[in-house]
Write a structure and sequence with these properties.
242 residues, alpha/beta, Rossmann fold, 6-stranded mixed beta sheet, 10 strands, disordered C terminus
Length: 242
């Protein structure tokens, strides 16, 4: 397993956000943390990213325990739902930001930025500013910026939430294709079951801080293991369809 959560517990002000969370994700896999609001999925993502620390349990990335490792040392790229682009920087400057932090040479930065602009089909828009872009284009830039330092793990927090429905559907397909091309282990958070079923190879279904079920979209639909899973995916227990 490339990413593992072992017996993770996390409490905020008496509220148990993670309750003995256990799962593993293989290298190169695209997994969705799916569940209703308040089910604990974003807490899991934030702990993997190093933004929150578990009260107990172990987080492993590539067989290394990272609980006490700063997020900047975990080899992670993070895409936020509100893009979090620097509005006074151009597209090129946003993508280059992480590379400058890494103190890469100007030549390396130029090559990598051009490579990523090509990847996201925005090679003619590098000099534009975020306010000159559509929501879908901003999310592509956020994706490229996260990929620029060549992370081994990509985390996406509700990456399509701020985008209208039509563009969201287009971006789902685009994201799946991009991750297939760059072969990066990825985890994204969503409360949208259709989105998870369409994009992810593995679904981790959360409820009240616990993992209810892990499986492929087909397994989750055809064989929901609990009544919650059956209700959440809108099928009757034991009679799922896909």
């Amino acid at each position: 397993m490339y990413v593992e959560m072992r017996h993770i517990n996390k409490t905020f002000d008496g509220f148990r956000a993670s309750d003995d969370v256990n799962f593993g994700i293989e290298r190169g896999q695209l997994a969705a943390l799916l569940g209703p609001s308040g089910s604990g999925k974003t807490t899991i993502l934030r702990m993997i990213a190093g933004l929150d620390k578990p009260d107990s349990g172990d987080i492993l990335i590539d067989e290394t325990r990272v609980n006490d490792l700063p997020g900047s040392k975990r080899g992670i790229g993070f895409v936020f739902q509100n893009y979090a682009l620097f509005r006074y920087m151009t597209v090129e400057e946003n993508i280059a930001f992480g590379l400058k932090v890494q103190k890469k040479s100007r030549q390396e930065i130029t090559y990598r930025v051009e490579e990523l602009l090509e990847l996201i089909s925005m090679k003619d828009l590098g000099r534009r500013y975020p306010h000159q872009l559509s929501g879908g284009q901003r999310q592509r830039v956020a994706f490229a910026r996260a990929l620029a330092p060549s992370p081994q793990l990509l985390l996406l927090d509700e990456p399509f939430a701020a985008i209208d429905a039509k563009v969201r559907r287009e971006l789902r397909t685009w994201l799946k294709d991009m991750i297939d091309r760059v072969k990066i282990t990825s985890i994204f958070v969503t409360h949208d079951q259709e989105e998870a079923m369409e994009v992810a190879g593995t679904i981790i279904l959360t409820n009240q801080g616990r993992i209810e079920q892990i499986g492929t979209p087909e397994e989750i639909c055809k064989n929901p293991k609990t009544e919650f899973v059956a209700d959440f995916i809108d099928v009757k227990l034991g009679t799922g369809h896909f």
